[in-house]
Specification:
With about 170 residues, the chain is of the alpha/beta class. Helix content is about 40%, strand content about 15%. It contains 8 helices and 5 strands; from the N terminus they run αααβαβααβαββα. The strands form 2 sheets. The chain has a 3-stranded parallel sheet, with helices on one face. The chain has a two-stranded parallel ribbon with strand order 1-2.
């Protein structure tokens, strides 16, 4: 997601087209919009909503997503957690992992890198940039899709239920 900002529906369609062609599959112009329309219906991984609700009892939650405003709103609703701030790529005019996305977030929240904890399932698209921005407190939710990049200095967990525990909250 480098280069100039493009609307999310175009990013989805272009990514799908490239992927289908890579695997020798036929891409139709209607495929991209069809996938784009399905994205808001995707639910969270098991346990995510409960862990976020528990965490929100003690800490303000912010979501920064590589989607547009419409999808960001639906994503936050699907997570069923009380986010205080929802920030989309459309709002920022840039996609993560661009540092400008992280700068925008810190500016909007009025915080410094040492005042937040960045939680992500992607070292590539989030945690590398967070480290570059000086964010010391990072959590990697390892779902087995990316390589562990421990040198980035994060806490690694494999179960989302462990996030509240990392913050000192008791297990349910």
């Amino acid at each position: 997601m480098s280069g100039e900002y493009k609307p999310f529906h175009q990013v989805v369609a272009h990514s799908l087209e490239r992927t289908m062609r890579r695997f020798g599959l036929r891409y139709r112009e209607s495929d991209g919009p069809a996938v784009y329309e399905e994205i808001p219906g995707w639910g969270p991984y098991p346990g995510v909503s409960e862990a976020l609700r528990r965490l929100a009892e003690e800490y303000p939650l912010v979501i920064v997503t590589n989607s547009d405003d419409v999808h960001a709103k639906r994503l936050s609703e699907n997570l069923q957690a009380p986010f205080e701030v929802v920030i989309s790529a459309e709002e920022m005019g840039v996609y993560k992992p661009r540092l400008r996305a992280f700068e925008y977030t810190l500016d909007k929240l009025g915080v410094t890198p040492d005042e937040i904890v960045h939680v992500s399932a992607s070292p590539k698209y989030d945690l590398r940039s967070a480290a570059d921005m000086g964010i010391k407190n990072k959590v990697y939710v390892d779902r087995g899709f990316e390589h562990d990049e421990h040198w980035l200095g994060y806490q690694r967990i494999t179960d989302i239920a462990d996030i509240p525990v990392l913050f000192g909250l008791p297990r349910p």
